[in-house]
């Protein structure tokens, strides 16, 4: 309680969701964007490598612990794409409507109308000395076209989690926070530090 932690992201949706997960712990979370920290280039080949890269960059620069998230949508019919390139599919203007249309077009071109997909989230916590630990969470489901709902961010409107009748884009944020890939990774992180 009372500790300050950098959320090493400039993505307001991720910062909001991570902030909600941290709130019960009384941690003072501040985003890398609010501190004016630059976004490092994501050069890793895995979610883990990219999350650790971002966490280490923020922690060493600000001399505070930092929590970074690298996440994305993996579609079986697309051999795991967009995967670690999920944000890049949205382009520099982060147009996820365009990204969702591209996913839909490629799935349909491959004959997949309701393909299996899963979200991955890797949370990495790093300290100013450069050490880092990572935790991976996943949420499995199917894609629905066209997307449904306006809540959440990114690919949420096209992702229907297993056992649910509503997409992430239709869900109450509290429900999504409790079942999401990010929540899964966060549960593993908090268990490790309990």
The secondary-structure class comes to alpha/beta
Estimate the helix proportion, in percent.
Answer: 25-40%
Strand order of the largest sheet: 2-1-3-4-5-6
Quote the distance from N terminus to C terminus.
13 Å
Biggest sheet statistics: 6 strands, mixed
Order of SSEs, N→C?
A: EHEHEHHEEEHH
Rg: 16 Å
Give a quick set of tags describing it.
single chain, 194 residues, alpha/beta, 6-stranded mixed beta sheet, 6 strands, globular
Q: What can you tell me about this protein's structure?
A:
- This protein is α/β, with parallel strands linked by helices.
- Helix content is 34%, strand content 23%.
- It contains 6 helices and 6 strands.
- The protein has a 6-stranded mixed β-sheet.
- Strand 1, helix 1 and strand 2 (28-31) form a beta-alpha-beta unit.
- Helix 5 (173-179) crosses helix 6 (181-193).
- It is globular and about 50 Å long.
- The model has no long low-confidence stretch (mean pLDDT 92).
Secondary structure layout plus pairing:
Layout: E1 4-7, H1 12-22, E2 28-31, H2 47-62, E3 66-75, H3 86-89, H4 96-109, E4 116-126, E5 132-143, E6 159-161, H5 173-179, H6 181-193
Parallel strand pairs: 1-2, 1-3
Antiparallel strand pairs: 3-4, 4-5, 5-6
What is the gist of this entry?
With 194 residues, the protein is an alpha/beta fold. It has helices spanning 12-22, 47-62, 86-89, 96-109, 173-179, 181-193; strands at 4-7, 28-31, 66-75, 116-126, 132-143, 159-161.
